[in-house]
Amino acid sequence: MASNESVLGRAALSRARRVVVKLGSALLTNDGRGLDDAAIGGWVDQVAALHQRGVEVVLVSSGAVAAGMVRLGWQARPSAVHELQAAAAVGQNGLTQCYEQHFARHDMLTAQILLTHDDLSNRKRYLNALSALRTLVGMRVVPVINENDTVVTDEIRFGDNDTLGALVANLLEADALLLLTDQDGLFDADPRHNPNAQLISEGRADDPRLAAVAGSGGALGRGGMTTKVRAAQLAARSGALTVIANGRQPDVITRLMAGEPLGSLLYPDQAPIAARKRWLAGQLQVRGTLQLDPGAVKVLRDKGSSLLAVGVRSVQGSFKRGDMVACVDEKGMTVAKGLVNYGADEARLLAGQPSHQIEAILGYVEAHELIHRDNLVVV
């Protein structure tokens, strides 16, 4: 399943400037025996080293429920949702403190962010999360993201932080997603039952054979490989490389980011911008329409710039901040789609006005662009 593209992918890891690292519960809690302080310290040291090189790192961390169970003295994982939520609430405190103490050794700050999948599918909350995360990484703060297990139910039942990691990679247009687990990667058979099983070193994220391997035999699926392959497919939409690797290997993050052939590399089939624009164009329902003047149409088509309110002639529909809207020319032909930074009523007030007048008109400024170019696709 390897190709020349995968070789380029390994080299691309060494050039990555933004990476999402997901750490699984088994690693963080030493297979359920409590938070593994020494191991967490080692991963933090590697992240700190990347920061010294100018690489932005976002952590997606499991472990809250498992850590809470240990703190509460529970030997078996409960089945009642309210008990799982209680364990998550207790464990999250310890998890946050552990990260904060280790990053403090490097004079680095962390920020706890608790998300549900709804936060990234609701477009207003999506933009809010994007703004917050961009601000944090720009300030050289390390976001530590977890699912908000205290208030959600399905995420607790299915343990889907792999998908959350991929959604965060999409959100930030990360160059790479590292899924660190207690296994060496994805194999072509279950290595626990087949001594001839071979590690899949590289492959395309959308290769149907990978999903078949991850779901076969049961054991690999229980080990989380199915969700990891799905996460790689999701991350590929925004052009991110995904690596599934054993987090217990010495200096695993540093070695992966140096391009060392560890674990399983799953690569996208499109460049990051193309994949991101495809995702924006195909996944969201249009909620309204902005009719543009000829100058704005030309700028969008020729330069790929953000859409400013001054180029908008009229606004149709009822939409909220973060909804998908269509941008049309004078003849009503769609020229672009994008996630709008202002609701319909606000957009009507701003139409045709220069950006420096936004605060005077509305009394506040959410953004200087009606649609930022990162959230805009020309069709």
**Nearest-angstrom radius of gyration?**
22 Å
CATH superfamily of the largest domain: Acetylglutamate kinase-like
Strand order of the largest sheet: 3-4-2-1-5-7-8-6
In terms of per-residue confidence, which ranges show pLDDT below 50 for 5 or more consecutive residues?
1-7, 155-159, 216-223
The coarse overall form would be: globular
Number of β-strand runs = 13
Structural class of the secondary elements?
alpha/beta
Distance between the termini: 33 Å
Under the CATH scheme, which class of the largest domain? Answer: Alpha Beta
CATH architecture call of the largest domain = 3-Layer(aba) Sandwich
Q: Which sheet architecture does the biggest sheet show?
A: 8 strands, mixed
Strand and helix order: HEHHEHHEHHEHHEEHHHEHEHEHEEEHHE
Number of domains: 2
Classify the helix fraction into a percent range.
40-55%
Report the mean per-residue pLDDT as an integer.
Answer: 86
Q: So how many helices?
A: 17
Q: Tell me the strand percentage band.
A: 15-25%
Q: If you consult CATH, what is the topology of the largest domain? A: Carbamate kinase
Structural description of this entry:
This protein has 379 residues and is of the alpha/beta class. The chain is built from 17 helices and 13 strands. The protein has helices at 4-15, 25-28, 37-52, 64-72, 81-104, 117-121, 123-138, 154-158, 161-172, 208-215, 219-222, 225-236, 252-257, 272-283, 294-303, 344-350, 358-362; strands at 18-23, 56-61, 110-115, 142-147, 176-181, 202-204, 241-246, 264-267, 286-292, 312-317, 324-328, 334-339, 376-378. The strands form two sheets. An eight-stranded mixed β-sheet has the order 3-4-2-1-5-7-8-6, sandwiched between helices. A five-stranded mixed β-sheet has the order 10-9-11-12-13, sandwiched between helices. Strand 11 and strand 12 (334-339) form a beta hairpin. The relative contact order is 0.12. Mean pLDDT is 86; it is low at 1-7, 155-159 and 216-223.
